[in-house]
Amino acid sequence: MKRLILLGTGGTIAGASxxxxxxxxxxxxALTVEQLLASVPHGQALQPIETEQLFQIGSEDMTPAHWCTxxxxxxxxxxRDDVAAVVITHGTDTLEETAWFLQLVLRSAKPVVLVGAMRxxxxxxxDGPRNLADALLLVRSPEAQYRGVLVVMGGTIFSxxxxxxxxxxxxxxxxxxxxxxxxxxxxxxxxxxALAPLHLEEPLPLADTLPAVExxxxxxxxxxxxxxxxxxxxVQGIVYAAPGSGTLSVTMRAALCDAVARGVSVVRASxxxxxxxxxxxxxxxxxxxxISANSLNPQKARILLxxxxxxxxxxxxxxxxxxxxxxxxxxxxxxxxxxxxxQLFDRLG
Length: 349
Description:
The protein has 349 residues and is of the alpha/beta class. It folds into two domains: 3-192, Rossmann fold (3-Layer(aba) Sandwich), CATH 3.40.50; 213-348, 3-Layer(aba) Sandwich (Rossmann fold), CATH 3.40.50.40. It has helices spanning 33-38, 64-78, 95-105, 128-139, 225-233, 250-261, 285-288, 298-315, 331-348, and strands at residues 3-10, 49-57, 83-89, 112-115, 149-153, 156-159, 164-165, 174-175, 183-186, 189-192, 213-217, 237-242, 265-270, 290-292. The strands form three sheets. Strands 2-1-3-4-5-6-9-10 form an eight-stranded mixed β-sheet, sandwiched between helices. It has a four-stranded parallel β-sheet with strand order 11-12-13-14, with helices on both faces. Helix 3 (95-105) runs parallel beside helix 8.
């Protein structure tokens, strides 16, 4: 019989506190993945489960290096003939980012499910055991195949594309934004009622290192201080979390245009949490060489831009993050670069 793999990375689901009633002052990533599995009634009954503790951190400490390590390990496990699926335990704060990264780079039809918890494992009403049981049920289902990376929280199944943590402390903290969840798990019964969003037939290449991309938050009377500092620091991309549907103030437009002239890729996203930033809406994106995020939130737009820039770098196109403006002979390469990246956002956003 093929086996399931349970990868542990830490987070609140593995959190513990000295007093069971203390659900705030706990230490995340305190328990091992073996201990988490032991909390699930009959967790090993239906199918052999192999556990591995890959990281033991809070998800706020996840880095691109962690993402790459996790993706490489997950891909290697999925390629094993004796492996049916992979479940990954993860902190909830950046769970959506890890799920989206894996969605973009993994190459397998086998189920991959991320799961977390809003309460530590020592809480009397801990949600981790139920969520983990749901994840193990989900990956055993043939219906979970060919759907990309999934997230299950509170009995709700989400796609990596749509899932987002909407509430800081509520038990039902996750939503699908403007979309709808893919399905539900109730009383050990699984039901899918939506198709997963379209994703790349050929995943993006997983580079050894990822370009530096930062997010700048937009607000009334925002200044160019952050943009100028990031350009000076040598970042290769900036995602602007704009008010509304991607609007730019006069000051911010000038700052971002200057950033593009210095070789920095710029993506317009929305800070609202739902809705689309469409190309050429409010801005002459082609003329200014801006990229629009479509429906991706800023943090997911950042990840797609990082991978897209890595692919362009490895393809040998124009370099990024230079301290001087692009010379005229590179303008065509830069335009081609932006066009290809915009096509990715149009398709995946």
